[in-house]
Design brief:
The chain is α/β, with parallel strands linked by helices. About 35% of the residues lie in helices and about 25% in strands. The protein has 2 domains: about 5-130 and about 280-290, 2-keto-3-deoxy-galactonokinase, substrate binding domain (Nucleotidyltransferase, domain 5), CATH 3.30.420.300; about 135-275, 2-keto-3-deoxy-galactonokinase, C-terminal domain (Nucleotidyltransferase, domain 5, 2-Layer Sandwich).
Length: about 290
């Protein structure tokens, strides 16, 4: 059993509605803790400080430096880094709070099309730290999905989509863990969404009508909804995945849907677990900040 009292720093990722913290000793994780959080509640550094204090209270640790990815832009004076740029930030911005010495990892910014990465850039950095000299395109499903073109260790460009947020708003999100996906419904909707993305709004209305009339069960509706939205996203992101070396970074049902969708198009992708990439990326930024 690890001794969490030996921790000398904390790694933290804020991702969608989840806050995850690792108690670290050098490059080794001693313990980890996760909590669901309301992004609307993390409106300030003091609110974040309170949430992190509650999550780490069982460890009874002294005041420690905290390298954190995914915080809102504007909490520090540091501007997001503009792409193209190295995936791994060379440092972080200090932000002392009541209980922690935060080191905020900067976001990535793209001018055209306008885009902002908060946390995804650190997962990308983690993947590249574990896969040296990897070039290609990385997809990161989530409330905001990301397609990032990677070359020579740099994020060259990226495109973001609100597919995950739309799934949550229009349905019950992706099928729960352990719930079977209606593969046929998903595949058919994916093909239709990819080939005819201009029919997106009409297809969504049809799904809602069929569900209201009980012509289809909820799992089929969810599969059709996911397939339609992801198909339209793939159509818009075709330049990013067609003929490219691909990786999908994520966890759970959403990542599996994207992997299935890409495989259906003859574009298989390497799968990487999201939390593991996040921790690797935070560690890479900390090493860079310390000059190593």
């Amino acid at each position: 059993m690890t001794d969490v009292s030996k921790a000398d720093w904390l790694a933290v990722e804020v991702q969608d509605a989840r806050l995850q913290v690792w108690a670290m000793q050098g490059g080794s994780a001693l313990e980890t803790a996760t909590a669901e959080c309301d992004p609307a509640g993390l409106t300030s550094a003091s609110a974040f400080d309170a949430a992190l204090k509650t999550l780490t209270a069982p460890w009874q640790l002294p005041r420690l430096p905290v390298f954190v990815a995914g915080l809102p832009v504007g909490w520090t004076d540091a501007a997001p880094r503009m792409v193209p740029c190295t995936a791994t930030a060379e440092g972080a911005t200090p932000l002392p709070t009541d209980n922690f010495d935060l080191q905020v990892i900067p976001a990535l910014r793209q001018q055209s099309p306008s885009g902002l990465l908060r946390g995804a850039e650190t997962r990308i950095a983690g993947f590249l730290s574990l896969n040296k000299d990897w070039d290609g395109v990385i997809c990161l499903p989530g409330a905001t999905s990301v397609w990032a073109q990677i070359s020579a260790g740099e994020v060259v460009s990226f495109q973001t989509f609100l597919t995950g947020e739309l799934l949550d708003l229009l349905g019950d999100g992706t099928p729960a863990e352990g719930t079977a996906l209606d593969d046929t419904a998903f595949d058919d909707a994916l093909s239709d969404g990819l080939s005819r993305p201009e029919r997106l709004a009409g297809r969504l209305a049809s799904i809602r009508a069929d569900l209201a009339l009980k012509d289809i069960p909820p799992p089929t509706a969810e599969a059709r909804l996911a397939g339609t939205l992801i198909g339209a996203e793939l159509a818009a992101a075709r330049a990013y995945w067609l003929g490219q070396t691909l990786a999908v970074i994520g966890t759970g049902g959403a990542a599996q849907l994207y992997l299935r969708a890409l495989t259906q198009q003859g574009a298989p992708a390497t799968e990487a677990e999201g939390s593991r990439m996040a921790l690797a990326g935070i560690c890479a930024v900390r090493r860079a900040a310390k000059g190593g």
